[in-house]
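User: Sequence for Ig-like domain-containing protein below. Tokens please.
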Amino acid sequence: SDISIQDECAVKYQGFLLMRYLTVKVFCISALCGTFNVNIPQKINVLRGSCVNIPCSFDVDNTHDKNLDNSCKAYWSDSSSFTSENAKLKPTKEMTGDLTKKDCTTTFNNASLLQSAKYYFRLECNNPLKFTFTQAGVDISLIAAPPSPTLTPSTLEVEEGASVSLTCSSPAPCWSHPPALTWSPNLGQSQETLQENQDKTKVKTSVMNFNASHLHHGNKISCTAVYQKQDGIPDVTAETSLTPDISYSPKDVQISISPSAPILENQKVTLTCSSNANPAVENYTWYRADGDQETFIGTGSSFNVTVSKVKSTFFCKATNELGFKRSSNLQINVQCMH
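Assistant: Structure tokens for Ig-like domain-containing protein:
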């Protein structure tokens, strides 16, 4: 009537006419089962044709620490009740961490061995230590295309000149072949790191730092993750982008004139002031330049004026909430009337 350590927690006893010493032993085993724990991620997306690393660590009851020896082997199955004989996956020593140090991290270089299923870890040694860790399983999902990278922040609204830091992150289920991250356009210095999540899975991260310019406004910024496969299939990519909203004071303030040449003295012309600004220009103001003198003559994006041979130099100013900029002087060539 002795009960082995093998799958104690899965042992079920029916009926109530058990002998007293057996009841006591079952109680002890139930208490013992609480000290057998496994730490694995809840879910991992695996790219078909690539490898996957399953981070894994475990604890056994301290009375079985002595049984953790070189005879111990790792097994994985999509069934919570299995043995080494019917295990779906039997990783070799090279594929697993040091089981004697309670490290059951497993690497599958050929993801085709896996199927989309929930896998459980089993430890089996050539001694009484044989246990299936059914407390937690890892959901493996085989995917044909990688997920889109994550951009942080997902939107960008800053003033020109602001220091910007964009972070692009993409999961790295295969630690030996993490995705390569590229920025388009490359606006500044970028730095890549392979970071560890709380559940011990890993993520590739690239941080790009630059100073915001009005030239960036409305122009898409993209981060592309390139995943290298191991089965000869071409690399696969995934992309995420954002369109920055950069606010800036007026730029490129220019004046156009209608009609153009020839302009006769005392002729009426229409001057138009244009500018590039975000937010849009709130008002335009017009000035006549006479040597060092600047005389305010009107407002509005367009302005009608009668030109004369002696007073035919003009400029405009464009203003928004962030500032203003003036145009260069426009000297109108006025012809004398014959």
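Confidence is low (pLDDT under 50) at residues 1-34.
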